[in-house]
Structure formats: structure tokens, C-alpha cells
């Protein structure tokens, strides 16, 4: 197969798939496929609800078309899979979207075709879990009739500086020749360049440790913040002092959610346990980060009691529900942990977030956000997400939402220490 002869399909048009499809669609014919009819309709109308791609950029991909009809894939010969890979309620990898996408591709797979996976998985998943599905459904033989590759996604939702084209892309293929072709394909749109891994398993492992490393670093800072809290020391002041050393890493404590950092480590630990190794450090970090919601709620309740504020029946406003600032992404947000913990104290919790779709928050978490919080209403206010709108309000304006005696808890170090009552 020649580079110019590639007829491309991107399977899954979320935060990862759409920006990639748009870049390829500026220069070659691309089918953007997604099973969500509402999503397809919105994209055909020129709008991306995730806000990763603005309307003007979407329109610039003149050779990109969208469909939820599998027959639209029949003329394609290279398929890039960018579906979600979540964890289930028991924190085990859920490959259902990946398997179903593989089944869909298998029905249209032809001799000479290439299937590239970008979804985060554990090492071995592409060849051990996905390829057998392709073989079974298509009746073709791997590395004889069709080929595979893996190129891990590195999308950072809401980040307008680090875009798909400006982040180095790791690539790999099931044979040396296919690896080179896949590397050339991505190299045609990735201005930051590519890194061709020696095997699919190496590329898979590289992806899963990127976020595991970050997860562990944040877990360390979260644990330190709990220690310093008991000692009456302000964590941010400690980190600023330590940060004067040239090689000190600038991590901050916080809630660890999202589709990557709070999920990827469980893919690695699942595989490690499957081969007989118990990963102590990784799971320890996960326990710390998964427990931060409880810690935040406990700290707030203590602060309220110290102010002689009645906890039972109190009203608390949580500002921000998304997993990170300035994006509408609610996937695996750990703000919900804080909300649930506060509700255990019989506290009424209101949530305000100008970035989210209320229907989505109701569907995913049964949370109906308030459009405009009332002034003088709340016994405590939690700044949970650092949206620009909250920064622009300023601490004084945010405090007008509280009762004369209230607690302002800043989880994101948005405001100076002297402007708030509590920091993580």
C-alpha cells in the first residue's frame, strides 16, 4: 500500500478521534465514524460539542465526512480506532467499546487493510484482544491478509497549546514495513514529529506509563498535603519554597480524574496481576488519589465546625464539576466524590459549572446544576475546578454567595492564601 493510496477512517469521534480526523481531512479523504447519531448530526451541522475543535477549523477539513452507517467504511483501507477505554465499577479494564469497534471493522476488513489502535490499553491488548476479533469476524489472517498498528493518543482536553499536531506521536506496526507506512501516515500531519517504537507492545506500554508516572507524582503531593494539614503547614507555601530548587517537579495536590490519569494505571496493574505480579507502588498511589474526595469533605466539615457552623442540613456550593479547567469533559470527574461525601453528612450540595451540559451531568451523575447560585445562601463554598470564569469573579464576589459566616475552600490555589479560609 502506498501513502497516497490510503483511504482513511477514524472510528470514534470524541476528544481524541475528532481532532485527528480533522487534521487528516484537510489533506485526504477521511470518513469520521461514530455510533452516536446525535454526535454525527452535530458534526454534520458544523459544531463540536466537546469544544476541542472550533467551527472554523471543523469547516477547514473539506475532505472529512461523518457517518454512523458502517457501510460508509467499505471503501476504506486504513482504520484508526479512537474509542474510549474506561474501567468498570470494580476498577477493571472495560474493553467493550474496543471489542465492538473491532467487530464493526472486521465486517468490512479486506486483504491488505491496516487497523491502527489509539485507545489506551495494557501491553498486549492490541494483538491478544483486538486482533483475534478482527480475524474471527473477517475470516482473514493477521499479518498475512491484514495488519495492525498502535499509536497512543496524547490529547489533553481543553489545552489549546498542546494540540494533536504539536505533540510528538509514538507509532508502531505489526511488521517493519507496516510500521514504516504508519509512521509516514502520521508524519504527514504531525508537525512535532514521530517516534517509531520497535513493537506494538512497546508503544502500548509507553502510553500506559506516561499517566501512571503522573498519577504517582500527584499521589505523593496529595499525601504530603495531608501530612502538612495535620501539622498546620500550608502545602502551597512548602511547594513554592521547594520549587526554588532547579530539579524539583512542580506538581500540586488535587482531585485526580479524567479519562487518562485516573484510569490508565488500572490497565497496567490489571495486566501485572494477570501475569502474577502485585504492583504495590502503583496501587498505593491509586488508593491515595481515589481517597482525596473523602479527605476534602472531612477538611471542610472540620473547618465548618471550628466556625460553629451547623453541619447537619447545611448548604454547600461546589464551583466546577468537570475533571479539569476550561473544558466540558465530565469523564471520571472526582468532584463527584466530594459531593457524595458531603451528602453523607446530610449536607445539601449545589453545583455550578458554566462549562457543562446539564443533561450530561444529570445522565452521568444525577446532578442537576444550578444556573445561577443565589447570593447569601451557602454555609460553605468549594472552588473545585479552576475555570477562567471563577478566576474572573474574584474571591470577594464569590464570597457574596455565602452567608455572613461561611467557609471558602480553594482546591485549585486560584486565590492567595489570605483571600480564602482553606486550601488543599
Task: Name the overall outline.
Answer: elongated
Class per helix and strand makeup = alpha/beta
Distance between the termini: 55 Å
Low-confidence stretches: none
| Largest β sheet strand count, sense and barrel closure | 6 strands, parallel
What spatial order of strands do you see in the largest sheet?
3-2-1-4-5-6
How many helix segments? 14
Determine the mean pLDDT. Answer: 95
The H-and-E topology, N to C, reads as EHEHHEEHEHEEHEHHHHHEHEHEHEE
Helix content: 25-40%
Q: Radius of gyration, rounded? A: 23 Å
The portion of residues forming beta strands comes to 5-15%
Properties at a glance:
424 residues, alpha/beta, 6-stranded parallel beta sheet, 39% helix, elongated
Summarize, please.
The chain is of the alpha/beta class. Helices cover 39% and strands 13% of the residues. The chain is built from 14 helices and 13 strands.
Structure description:
The chain is an alpha/beta fold and 424 residues long. Helix content is 39%, strand content 13%. It contains 14 helices and 13 strands. The chain has helices at 17-25, 37-44, 55-60, 96-106, 125-138, 176-187, 200-231, 235-242, 264-274, 280-290, 292-306, 335-344, 358-365, 388-399; strands at residues 8-11, 30-33, 64-67, 78-81, 114-117, 147-150, 169-171, 194-196, 315-319, 348-352, 378-383, 402-410, 422-423. The strands form 3 sheets. It has a 6-stranded parallel beta sheet with strand order 3-2-1-4-5-6, sandwiched between helices. A 5-stranded parallel beta sheet has the order 10-9-11-12-13, sandwiched between helices. Helix 4 (96-106) links the parallel strand 4 (78-81) and strand 5 (114-117). The model has no long low-confidence stretch (mean pLDDT 95).
